[in-house]
Amino acid sequence: MSMSPLVIEALQVALLIGGAPLFIGWVRMLKCWTQNRSSASIFQPYRDLAKLLSKDVVLAGNASWIFRFTPYLVFGTVILAGAVVPMLYLKLPLAPSADVIVLVGLFSIARFFTALAGMDIGTAFGGMGSSREMLVASLAEPAMLMAIFTVSLANRSTSLSHIAGVIYSGQSLFKPSLSFAFIAYILITLAETGRIPVDNPSTHLELTMLHEAMILEYSGRHLALIEWAGMMKLFIFMALGSALFFPMGIASVDDPLMIVIAGAVLLLKLAASAVVLVLIETGLAKMRLFRLTEFLGSAFLMATLGMLSFFILE
Amino acid sequence: MTLTFTPADAASGSILLLFLLALAAGLMSRAQRLLIIFSSVVATAASLLAVVAGAMTVGSGTTERMVLLLGLPDLPFHLRLDPLAGFFLAVIGLLAAFVSVYSAGYLKGFIGHRPVTRLVVFYALFLAGMFMVVLADDALFFLISWEVMAAASYFLVMFEDERPENRKAAYIYLVIAHVGAIAILLSFGVMAGISTGFETFNGYTFDAMRQANFPLPWATAAFLLAFFGFAAKAGMVPLHVWLPEAHPVAPSNVSALMSGVMLKTALYGIIRVTFDLLRVFPWWWGAMVLALGIVSAVMGILYALMEKDLKRLLAYSSVENVGIILVGIGLSMVFTSFNLPLLSALALTASLYHILNHAMFKGLLFMGAGSVLHATHERNMENMGGLIHVMPWTAALFLVGCVSISALPPFNGFVSEWLMFQAFLLSPSLPNQLMKLFMPLGAALLALTAALAAATFVKAFGVTFLGHWRGPQRQTIHEAGWSMKAGMIFAAASCLLLGIFPTAFIDWLHVVPEGLVGGNISMSAGVTGWMWLTPVAPERASYSGIGVFLGVILVTAIVYVVLHVRPGRIQRGPIWDCGFEKLTPRMQYNATSFSMPFRRVFGFMASVRERVTLAPQQAHPAFPLRLQYHLRIRDLFWNLMYKPVADASFWLARKVGRLQQGRIQSYLIYSFVTILVLLLLAGI
After folding, report:
1. B8-22, B489-503, B607-621: least confident range
2. Is pLDDT at B2 greater than 60 in this prediction?
3. Which range has the worst mean pLDDT, B228-237, B246-255, B303-312, B652-661?
C-alpha cells in the first residue's frame, strides 16, 4: 500500500502548522523547569494564538498596505519553506521547486517585508528593529550559506532531498566537515530564529529588542500570524538541521507505516533538540548587539573550517 | 531582386534613426513640447528596432558582417552582428525603449525651466554610440563609437551645468573615461601590431586579431590594458570614484541608461577581448577578475548602505552589481582556462543573465528615483518619508525593483545569483588546489553582498516611501504621469518575467556562451520541463521560479481568505508613543541612523569621520542645551589613490608654471637654449 506524495506533502504542512505551537510550548516548559519555575501548560501557545485571532486589529494611523500585507506574506513564505524541507518523506513533490539556497531566499523575503513593516509606522522602535535585524541577517546569512555549501559540497548537491538521501544511505556520515558545519548551523539557528544570546524572544524591554521591535505595532490576527510564523520558523530550522545532518528516520518509500514512523522520529528529534536549545538559552546571557559580530564571526569561522577540512581531508 | 530584412538592417536602421533624431531635434527647438513627444516616440521606435535585431540574432545564432566605406582611406569601418553583440544590442535596446517612454513625462518637468534640445540631441547620440560600440568589428570604429558614447554622456551629465557639483562630476568622469580609453587604445594597438607582425595596418580589424596567435607576455599586456581600461568605464573598485559622482547628477532618465546599460558596454568589451579576441589565457587572469569583482561587490554595497542620497545609493549599488557580473566573468575564465566548457558556460550564463537583470531593475530604480525627484525636488532621503501614501504607483514599482535587486525569489535578481552560487559550488572539479580553497570564500562574500543589498534596499525603500514625511514643509507632491508610470511598469514586468521564466531566457541566450566558451547548459537546464531550472542535473540543484511565485501567492491568498471568513473590524489608532506624547516625524529612524550599526561593524572599509559636539548648560553638564552631529563618509580610495595623484599633478603643474613669467626676454632665452641643445644633439 502506498500514499500519494501530495497527501504526504499536505500531512507535512499540517504537521508544521499544527505542531509548531506545541513545539514552542515544549521549549517554554523546559525553560521553566531548568530555571526552577512552574510552567504554563504545553498548550498555552494555542490559547495565545486563539486569543489573538479573535481580537480586532488596531492599525496605526500611518500604516500603509505594506504593513497589512506583510503578516500574510510572512506566513505564506514560511509555510512554503516548510513544504520543501524533507521532514516526513524524501521525495516531496514540491522539493524540486526549491533547493536549500532558495530556502534561505524564502526566509529572506519574510525578513525583508517584516523590516519594511517595522519602518512603515514611523516610530523610532520600528526603524531600530529593522536596522538591527538586517545587520544580524547580513552577518548570519554568509555563515548560513557557508555551512550549507559545506554540506552541499560533501554531498554534491544543493537539493535538500538529495542531500538527505546521500547522508541517509551512509555515504557521508560523521565526516569532519559536516561536524564543523553542524556547529556553525547551531549558532546560526540561534541568530536566525531570534533566540538568546542573539535576541530574546520574551523581552519587551525597548533597548534590547530586535525582532520584537519591528512587530511592536502589530495586533489581532496580524500579530497572531507573525507569531505563528515565528514558531514555524523555529520548527523548520530544527527540522532542516535534522534533514541536513541526521536524516535517519525520514521515510524513503511512500508506505503509510513508514510515514507514521517518520513522524514519530521527527517528534523525538525535535523534543531532543529543544533540550539543547533550552540548555544554551539558560546557560547564556543575551549579548550586546555589537558583540554579535564575534558570535556570528565564529559561526562563519566554523563553517569555513568545515569547508577547508572537506578540501584537505576528504 | 528580393527584399529581405536581416537583423543587421534593423540595427543599422535603428542607428540611422537616432542620428536623424539628433539632427531633427536641433531644428525643432522652438516647439519644446512637440520635441519631447517626437523624440520619445522616435527613440522608442529605434530602440525596439535594436531589440528586434538583437533578439533575432541571438535566437537564430547567425552572424552578419558589413563593411562601411567610411573612415580613413583604405581602412573602412567593419561591423559585425554576432550573438554576443546581438545580446547586448537587445539588452541596451530594451532598457532604452522603456526609458524613452519614461522620458516623455520626465522631460516635461524641464519645460519652463530650461530648453531640453541639448538633452534630446545628446540622448540620441548616446544611444547611437552604445549601439555602435557593440556592433563595431574593428578597433578604429570601436574607439570612435566609444568616444561618441563617452562624449555624449559627458554632455548629458553636464546638462544642469549651473551647479558646481555637476561640473566637477562631469570633469572627473571625462578624465577617468579618457584614461580608460587610452588603455583600451593601447591594448588594441598591441593586438593589432602582434597580429600582423607590425608590418601592415590591416591588424586593426577584430578578424585579424581573432586569427592571430599572441605570445603570452603580449597577450597579458593586451589583456591587462583592456581590462583596466574597460573596468574604469564599468566602475570597478578602485576605478569607480567617478560613478557615484556622475550618475546621480545627470537627469534621471540618463542616470537609468548610464547605470543600466552604459556600464554594460564596458563589460561587453571585457567579454569580447578575452573570450573572442585573445581566446587562450592562463587561469590567473580569471582569478584576478574574480577577486576584483568580489572586492567591487562588497565595497560597492557597503558604500551604498552608508549613503543618504537616493541616487548616489543607486549608483554605488551599480558598482556592486558590476562586481557580481565580473565575478561571473572571472569564474567563467577560470573554468575555461582549465578546459571545463560546461561549467564555464554556466558561469557566463549567470553573468549575462545578471547583465540583463541589472539593466532592468537598476533602470527601474533610477526611473523611480527620478519620479521622486520630479515630485519632491529632493534627492536626500533624510528629508523624505511617507511617499507611499501620495505616490502609490511609484512606491509599488520601486518596491519591485528593491525586491529584485536584493536577490529575493521569485524575482530576477535571485535567478542570476542562484546560478552564480551553483557555478561556485562546482569549483571542486577544478584541478588547481589554490583555486579550490579560495572559491568557497568567494561564494560566502557573494552571500554577504546579497544580504547587505537587502539591508540597503530596506533602507532605501523604508526611509523614502514609508513612515512620515521628514522634510521641512510638505510641498504639493504628485504621482508620476502616465508615461513615466508606463516606462516603470514595463521594466517591473520584465523583472518578474525574467524571474519566473528563467529556462526560456536561458534557452534563448544559450548560443552566446556556446559560441564563446563552447559549452551549452540549455540542454540540461530544461531537462525536466520548462518549469524547473536545473543548470547541471536535476539531482544536483533545481529551482522553479514560477513554482515559488504561485506557491507564495496561493498560500498567502488561502491564509487571507481563511482569516477573513469571519468579518473582523480594523480600527485606526495613534502610534504607541510609550506614554511620552508629542512624537514628531523627526524622531523616526532615518537613513543615517539605519546604517549606524553597519558603520560600526564595517566602517573600517570607508573613511568615516564622526563628531558630536555638545553645548553644555550652566546648571549641570549632564543636561546639554544642544547637540550637533557631524558625519562625513568618504571613499577610502579617494584619499588613498586619487588625491595623491591629483595633488602631485597640481604640484607639478605649479612647478612647471614657474617657467611662465610673461616676459618676452625669458621666452627668447628658452628658445635659444632649446636650439642650442638640439644642435648639440644633432652634432653628437
Report:
1. B607-621
2. no
3. B652-661
Q: Are residues B195 and B87 in the same domain?
A: yes
- Judged by CB atoms closer than 8 Å, whether chains meet at A139 and B388 is answered as no
User: B53 and B179 in one domain?
Assistant: yes
B563 contacts A138? CB cut-off 8 A: no
B272 and B304 in one domain?
A: no
Query: Is 90 exceeded by the pLDDT of residue B360?
Result: yes
Q: How confident is the model at residue A172 (pLDDT cuts 50, 70, 90)?
A: low
Residue type, A188: I
* B316 and B264 in a common domain: no
Say whether pLDDT at A173 is over 70. Answer: no
- Asked whether residue B190 is assigned to any structural domain, the reply reads yes
Q: Looking at CA atoms only, how far is residue B354 from chain A in angstroms? A: 17
Name the strand (E) or helix (H) holding B436.
helix B433-465
Distance CA A218, CA A53 (A): 12
Q: Within this chain, do residues B264 and B302 fall inside the same structural domain, yes or no?
A: no
pLDDT in tens, A239-287: 999 888 888 888 888 888 888 999 999 999 999 999 999 999 999 888 8
SS3 B610: strand
Query: In whole angstroms, what is the distance from residue A99 CA to residue A106 CA?
Result: 11
The secondary structure of chain A, three-state, reads CCCCHHHHHHHHHHHHHHHHHHHHHHHHHHHHHHCCCCCCCCCHHHHHHHHHHHCCEEEECCCCHHHHHHHHHHHHHHHHHHHHCCCCECCCCCHHHCCHHHHHHHHHHHHHHHHHHHHHCCCHHHHHHHHHHHHHHHHHHHHHHHHHHHHHHHHCCCCHHHHHHHHHCCCCCCCHHHHHHHHHHHHHHHHHCCCCCCCCCCCCCHHHCCHHHHCCCCCHHHHHHHHHHHHHHHHHHHHHHHHHHCCCCCECCCCHHHHHHHHHHHHHHHHHHHHHHHHHHHHCCCCCHHHHHHHHHHHHHHHHHHHHHHHHHC
B207 and B307, same domain (yes or no): no
| B431 inside 8 A of chain A by CB | no
Rounded to a whole number of angstroms, the distance from the CA of A53 to the nearest CA of chain B is: 8
Cβ–Cβ of A128/B589 closer than 8 Å? yes
Q: Residue B482 falls within a domain, yes or no? A: yes
Write down which residue in B277, B309, B332 finishes a domain.
Answer: B277
Q: Angle formed by the axes of helices A124-155 and B412-425, to 10°?
A: 40
Place of cell 574597460: B230
Q: How many domains does chain B have?
A: 2
Residue B684 located in a structural domain: no
Q: Cβ of B467 and A115 within 8 Å?
A: no
Parent domain of B528 = 282-562
B148-165: average pLDDT: 92
- B594 dihedral zone (left: phi>0; alpha: psi -120 to 50; beta): alpha
Lowest model confidence (mean pLDDT) among A105-119, B487-501, B523-537: B523-537
Considering the domain architecture, whether residues B22 and B67 belong to the same structural domain is answered as: yes
Please check whether residues B386 and B530 belong to one and the same domain: yes
CA distance B431 to chain A (A): 12
The more confidently predicted of residues B572 and B577 is B572
Look up residue A164 and give its three cell numbers. 538527505
Q: In this complex, is the C-beta atom of B572 within 8 Å of any C-beta atom belonging to chain A?
A: yes
Q: What CA–CA distance (Å, rounded) separates B383 from B377?
A: 11
Q: Does some domain include residue B665?
A: no
* B445 chain-A contacts, CB cut-off 8 A: 142
Could you report the per-residue pLDDT of A34-70, keeping only the tens digit for each?
Answer: 999 999 999 999 999 999 999 889 998 889 999 999 9
Which domain-ending residue is among B512, B532, B562? B562
